Write the structure tokens for this entry.
Amino acid sequence: MSTFLSSNAELIISLVKIALLLFIVLTVNAYLTWFERKVVAHMQSRWGPHRVGPHGLLQPLADGVKFLFKEDSTPAGADKFVYYLAPLLALALALTSIAIIPFGPDPIHLFGHDIYLGIAPPDLNIGILALFAITALGVYGIALAGWSSNSKYPLLGGLRSSAQMISYELSLTMSVVGVLLIAGSFNLKDIIANQTSTKWGIFGWNIFPQLLGFICFFIAAIAETNRVPFDLPEAESELVAGFHTEYASFKFAMFFIAEYTSMITVSCLCTIMFFGGWLSPFPASWTFTHYLPSAILLPFGLWVIWDGIRYETIFGRIILPAVGTAITALGAVFILFPDVNTFIQGPFWLLSKIFIFLFIYVWMRGTLPRFRYDQLMAFGWKLLLPASIVNVIITSFVILAKMQWGPK
Amino acid sequence: MTAPLVVFFVLAALAILGALSLIWQKHPIHSALSLIVVMVALAGLYLLMGAEFVAAVQIIVYSGAIMVLFVLVIMLLNAGIEEHTSISKLAGVPGLLLVIALAGFIAATIARSSETVQAAMQTGAISSTKGISNMVFRDFVYPFELTSFLILVAIMGALVLAQREKS
């Protein structure tokens, strides 16, 4: 057994990492729906989910159970094979794209192996291209779902979404070319490493030279994930629910999970390409910023405990203080063990930035109305694509000028 | 059998099965899906040879952009199951001859260039983006520009066809 373990260590580590990441991503997905409903509700002066569990925290679980037990009907005349393939494809591709994201700079040393945070090997030279390749395939899930349902509204939704994704994929790819030119690499780790700065960390980030590129990228990325204000494929006022109208039960849940997973991927990409990934925005000499994770976790944990003790239901009075204690303990661990604290700095910044982008996603859903379809197409082709091409041209000219006349 | 060899045979079988299914499928969408399988399997084969960039571009351009357009057009036209006519005996014989000729031609090319491919794999000329860029934009820049001219002509043709209805 031990020889088997040692000879196949790489394989076993990869499998464990895949299982762990899958668990984490699906849990985050579930609570992202809770977070979205809560935030949008508060923006609209409502309470949002608050019946199932304290603060509605068990709502995702209830939703999941509901998805599993709903009747799973297949429309008559549907193309069975493609109808079943479409949600699988959507979910599998969305989850695969997460595997390419690196989540931290340093490996953990465990059982004599360097274990990197993230499934793809850290020297994956086509990192960003691999991500785009998977995104490019992601259209099929939606397009085929719309077609195979043998129903009018899904077909229209699928057509809209294919047209939209083809149009915005161009801008999406063009807008990162500026970043790639600056970094000189497709490797996501190299792109982050290229954003280190000697003084204030924040001024090394790509967002400052690439503001135009970032704006194009973020808009195109929202369109790629079919979120508000670009959610025309599922515009409920026109198309019932668009491409997933005929999907019920867990097949619908698969589309749902795929959408939220691609939200996470896009947030990761924004962070890595334009906001320095796991780099801290502060100067490296400010070592006291290393206590920032604890400074956030400790008060938050204590607040959860305080809130939990006063909660109305007995269940809440038990579960909330327990969660609060766990959060407080985590904060305390980061203070007490300096090694752990230095290790989590990278992941902490990465996850915080990802969280901010996820919040922006939700914020936009609560704020913006939907585009009209011709506006969407005109915007993508006549404004976004030229803008991203201009960005590429300007960036390459600046880089060329620096090479010619800049300091050696 | 080493692991890369196993992966090679799996991908090769997938590509051939996809190609056969492309012909045998009756519905255009199923044919298009089979073609996507072929493209992805080919990308896997490129990846196996260490040509990462080519593999990624294969998926982005062929499986992504071009096949999405195919699927979009099939969906737009709402093309149904195709009708099979009895194949003309006359067309069968030259067709078979052409297939044999093409297969022989491809086999000869592979046999002749296998050494150069091996050498290219060893030097890593096909794996790095830099090597490919040097080839496309320096060594073969004129053929490359000619190709882009060809594409421009095709775009202009499409524009003319699309504009005709208005007048």
Summary: The mean pLDDT of chain A is 83.
